[in-house]
Amino acid sequence: GAGVSQTPSNKVTEKGKYVELRCDPISGHTALYWYRQSLGQGPEFLIYFQGTGAADDSGLPNDRFFAVRPEGSVSTLKIQRTERGDSAVYLCASSSGRGVGETQYFGPGTRLLVL
Amino acid sequence: AQTVTQSQPEMSVQEAETVTLSCTYDTSENNYYLFWYKQPPSRQMILVIRQEAYKQQNATENRFSVNFQKAAKSFSLKISDSQLGDTAMYFCAFSKEGGSEKLVFGKGTKLTVNP
What we know:
The complex is a heterodimer. By secondary structure, chain A is mostly beta strands. Chain A has strands at about 5, 10-15, 20-25, 30-35, 45-50, 55, 65-70, 75-80, 90-95, 105, 110-115. In chain A, about 35% of the residues are buried. Chain B is an all-beta fold. Chain B is about 0% helix and about 50% strand.
């Protein structure tokens, strides 16, 4: 596609519910990143995929957060038993994965609000 | 661990004037990359400029240029001939070479360009 897309744009859920956030990277990009941006802060790294595998998940805050990328393209970030503190904008980015220091191209984000 | 500090939460500039946004970082790495991203109210992070640490020459992109001082670990962004469309949050980011190359962001500077 022309750019990174994320769905939904906004998600409102209740505390304790399960949510899935989707990211569709730029076609052909093998590297995919998830970041979380809380209000008034810069984005914070959550997880990195190279192809289908999660090569670095050191940013996931706890085991309620999980992400998959089964076919090496679309990725889904899954949050179980949501808490009010999970409210944030979740950003996805992709890069070609073929070099070093490559530019990451970001999607518009999903704003999650947990009531 | 790497850290990025942006000491100016907010700045303003008159249209057509020049403004400089500050960024300092802390790392023990020798090879790394530095970025400035722009985030307008639409939430989409857009790359403004990129600098490779091993290159001494400062990067420039049209009206945007950086002053990279490796010894001082400083990476400031200069915007010349400011335009109303430059109004946005600006984030400085760092990635080390190799591994996931995840981005570490500062807290951002909110820039307002006044007519």
